[in-house]
Design brief:
Layout: E1 18-24, H1 27-35, E2 40-43, E3 48-52, E4 77-85, E5 88-93, H2 96-109, E6 115-123, H3 138-141, E7 147-149, H4 152-161, E8 165-166, E9 169-170, H5 172-182, E10 189-193, H6 196-199, H7 202-219, H8 227-238
Helix pairs in contact: 5-8
């Protein structure tokens, strides 16, 4: 049996589709701002606006940076915008890393008075290089009954309501029970709110790292690996 190979992007990241959702106050002005950028180009064949790895975007340092990309495949499409309505704009990218670069990049070029990113949707699995990747991510993020909307606030409320310590020390039994009840899950498709304007990218980076750790373990063959296993490992390490 041949070894499995992880699917990668041209810029060197693990291929994991992400959709960013923007709430738009003035579509006409947002379109004008995007049109000013040399790294944006209209793709009439798919009714989208593509974000290219060139001009203003070439300063982004992906693992395979702008100068290492062969000329015959440049400029690389690193994202695509599609209008879902006059008030909703989505940006699809092919990796967690591209999403983390896209948010501050477009925050710089589109005033928050015109549009703000509100949610993120992810595909939490690893693709093999032999799998064909769709150009349209609606197959993952629209009309998909497996897409689960996460409410992080509800989870934090339950965490605060659960006594996880005894006599000012961590209660191992209580923590184990909490993890078993709350974290023994893993959804292949998730959508959750972003808090970039309040917290920056720190929490999103952590969310992406956690999801990738579990996805890789599952891709390696541990089909039941979940968030619980990651946190138990982290907790055990903190007690040593």
């Amino acid at each position: 049996m041949s070894e499995k190979t992880i699917g990668m992007t041209v810029t060197g990241e693990i291929f994991q589709p992400v959709r960013l959702y923007y709430a738009v106050r003035n579509r006409h002005e947002v379109e004008k701002r995007l049109a000013r950028l040399g790294c944006m180009e209209v793709d009439t064949s798919q009714k989208r606006l593509v974000w290219l790895y060139t001009d203003e975007a070439k300063a982004i340092n992906f693992k395979n940076d702008f100068h290492s990309i062969p000329k015959e495949v440049s400029p690389v499409v690193i994202g695509s915008f599609v209008w879902k309505s006059d008030e909703t704009l989505i940006l699809d990218v092919r990796s967690f890393e591209r999403a983390l670069e896209a948010i501050p990049f477009f925050d710089k070029h589109i005033p928050r008075s015109l549009a703000m990113t509100t949610h993120c949707a992810t595909v939490n699995r690893i693709f093999e290089v032999a799998e064909s990747a769709p150009s349209n991510f609606d197959i993952f993020f629209e009309n998909n009954d497996k897409l689960v909307e996460i409410n992080p606030n509800a989870f934090m409320d339950r965490a605060r309501e659960t006594p996880l310590s005894k006599n000012n020390s961590p209660d191992l039994q209580a923590i184990t029970s909490f993890l078993d009840n709350e974290m023994d899950r893993f959804f292949e498709f998730e959508k959750f709110p972003l808090h970039f304007y309040e917290d920056g990218l720190t929490s999103l980076k952590g969310s992406f790292t956690l999801r990738r750790l579990v996805a890789i373990k599952r891709w390696e063959g541990d089909a039941n690996y979940s968030f619980k296993d990651v946190f138990k490992k982290m907790f055990a390490a903190s007690q040593n």
